[in-house]
Design goal:
D-Maltodextrin-Binding Protein, domain 2; about 210 residues; 3 domains; two-stranded antiparallel sheet; mainly alpha; Arc Repressor Mutant, subunit A; single chain; globular; transcription; DNA-binding transcription factor activity
């Protein structure tokens, strides 16, 4: 018999990207998460995750796993609503789940939350923070309602809210100091430079530099 606890393990692992992060969120041990997923796969008679490739590769769902993950979300939602109705507290409050890129300035996030609370009184705001790829996954699986990101062309129905410069920090005697106030990403290929790893702008930078 499938246990709702194991469904919750599955959804948490997919939402947070790993069994370790899911365990931290659920305040249980990582081996308990792994054991629960193994029991769920045994009950289903098939693999939910593609475990081929390097051991440190992020967990990805199999095609059947993706379908079951969506069903698990629906089942857990029904269970939550049924429990609330039975307890005499039906879930009727308005709720917005906002997905935020983890590289966005915290000041901007605080400002957005204050603006939301001022204009949307009576609506509960849930904040989910993650990488751009994680935001895309959450949105495609309808885990978040709105995405706040500093990467353009994320979704077809996006709306531009602000622009921010990409700044190059150079020494006082660097040639760029005297040549121009604005440089292109391609200009940086002429000199060695330090680029932040795991940056959401990395694909754009590589494309502009012809890397």
């Amino acid at each position: 018999m499938i246990k709702t606890q194991h469904l919750r393990f599955l959804v948490s692992v997919v939402d947070y990207g790993s069994a370790t992060k899911a365990a931290e969120r659920l305040h249980i041990s990582q081996p308990s998460i792994s054991a629960g997923l193994k029991a769920l796969e045994d009950e289903l008679g098939g693999a939910l995750f593609d475990r081929s490739g390097p051991a440190n590769r992020p967990l990805t769902l199999t095609p059947k796993g993706q379908g079951f993950y969506r069903r698990a979300i629906e089942i857990l939602g029904i269970c939550e609503s049924a429990h609330a109705e039975f307890s005499g507290n039906p879930v009727q409050e308005k709720k917005l789940v906002l997905g935020v890129a983890d590289t966005i300035s915290k000041d901007l996030i605080v400002e957005a939350i204050r603006s939301f609370e001022s204009n949307e009184k009576g609506t509960k705001l849930n904040l989910w923070e993650g990488s751009v790829s994680r935001l895309e996954s959450w949105f495609s699986h309808k885990r978040v309602d709105v995405i706040l990101s500093n990467v353009g062309s994320l979704m077809p129905n996006e709306k531009l809210l602000w622009r921010e410069p990409l700044v190059a920090v150079v020494a006082p005697d660097h040639p760029y100091i005297s040549t121009a106030n604005v440089i292109s990403i391609r200009d940086l290929t002429e000199y060695p430079f330090i680029h932040r790893s795991n940056c959401e702008l990395d694909p754009l930078g590589r494309a502009r530099c012809g890397c």
